Amino acid sequence: MAPAFSSRSRNRRRTRRLAADMGLLVCAAAFVLPLAWVVLSALDPRADLRVKAPDGLTLDNFDAIWTSEITFTPLLNSLILCGGATGLTVVCAALAAYPLSRFRSRLNRPFLLTILFATSLPITAIMVPVYALFVRVDLIDTLQGTILFFTASQLPFAIWLMKNFMDGVPKELEEAAWTDGASPMQSLVRIVLPLMGPGVSVVTVFCFVMMWGNFFVPFMLLLTPDQMPASVSINEFFGNRGMVAYGQLAAFSVVYSTPVILLYVLIARRLGGGFALGGAVKG
Amino acid sequence: MNSRAVPPPNLRRSFVRALPVSPALVVLLLFLAGPIVYCVWIAFTDLRLTGQAESSFVGLENFRTAFGDEEFLNAVWLTLVFTVLSSLIGQNTLGLALAALMRRASKPVRTLTGGIVITAWVLPEVVAGFLLYAFFRREGTLNAILDWLHLPSQNWLFTLPILAVSFANVWRGTAFSMLVYSAALAEIPQEITEAAEVDGAGGWRRMWHITLPMIRRSIGTNLMLNTLQTLSVFGLIWVMTRGGPGDKSQTLPLFMYEQAFQNSLIGYGTAVALLLLLVGSLFSLVYIRLLRTEV
What we know:
The complex is a heterodimer of chains A (283) and B (295). Helices cover 75% and strands 0% of the residues of chain A. Chain A has 283 residues and is mainly α. Chain A folds into 2 domains: 1-58, no CATH class; 67-272, Orthogonal Bundle (MetI-like fold), CATH 1.10.3720. In chain A, helix 1 (3-42) crosses helix 12 and helix 11 (230-239) packs antiparallel against helix 12. Chain B is mainly α and 295 residues long. Chain B is built from 15 helices and no strands. The relative contact order of chain B is 0.13. Residues 1-5 of chain B have low confidence and may be disordered. The interface between A and B is large, with 98 and 100 residues. Chain A: The chain crosses the membrane at residues 75-98, 110-131, 143-162, 200-223, 243-267.
């Protein structure tokens, strides 16, 4: 290969990379504007609606929202709701995934197809009937009712994901335990789940993040202000006031969003960048 | 292991083995299948929120009302516009473009852009709504930029609310397509694109004749999932416009909510919900067909 050719192709590659970089940076700039607003305004003593350099840095906005009414109670409620529902989802999903992954049965395929079908149903659509049903069975405005519905709405996806991760654990490892007389439950808890630790944590974090950000479910099923999670209280608190303190709104948004972003970073690292909900999308 | 001699221990064994599925099954039947069945039932009644002892069966009345109701048809139209603009065109194309560019870009730029786009995706729905509300408001960032460029600015949330919420949905949802397509593009063998390059196929032709056909399954799956996700967007639009002004950004989920709670017509609202659920189920079935070989 002549040196002239390879240097030309190297040049071309460099030009191309530059063009791709420029294209991505333009997109990144467009995407970052709304994010920049929330970060800058949270620190700005005179925040308004546009992105601008703050008039001096201050933590007053955070101080102002640091009350139980605005911040602590809603975040605690979110934690109870999402923590409870995530725990329940992960336990039910791990139990359900085990026989689906380990034992052959004629029912597996229809069950998995139904689960996959339910995964992609628009849950928003059934919130009105769920409300009507919850009024009838007296679960409306209760945390346990909301937790159970959250669990049900997240379970199909969680089972599907969990089963795919579980399939990755070789069966041979368990067979030794079975010959030693371990029950399937023992081998699930002692062998399979520890071996699929990253998988379990992905399912857990994913469920938690989905519920933490969900607005419509608690908006419909909870009525008492004291029970509202942050997703609803933020809207009630800032949405229904004539005069909005934008700096405080931004500060609250930052406080409320930080946990899910950190959790996401945690699992994305664990799986290496290519985490495209692999289990779900690629089957 | 003497029980082997007895003919049907299989049934018992299968039952014991299937037992761990039961907690999930109970929750799913009671809180997911139950409401869906209940949805089908009350869609055919005149259930109301207030001042009514019991509801009665009204047959197809709710559906007949819906298809003669201009507000409903408006919501169907807006849902269509919202889905096509934000999901089919916006999230899908932009996601593919970002994924394709990322394969060529340098690592720091790739990481930075990916990080920003994914952050927009991970943010809670209501926060995303507030951010985009601030962006599109009359005194917000978009108009500030337009002023700076000496372009005409306007009150986006008032004049073109459906466009504003569609953009918001693109901002929020593109990361998913980007991740799906990044994974799909990574699986295309390098030799194929290189061979085409040597044969003199330019970037666009390679994209059209080689890359797109090779990732068509991912395109199908991604379109299905984007559409389903977009059909059920509520919080984002609620925070930004409440469906207004008037009903200029009132998609079906918001219409359903308004009928059921502001107008107290639970039966009617549920009939709309059922239609939404049916459309979703159709998409869901197509999606499963696309994936079926892999279960």
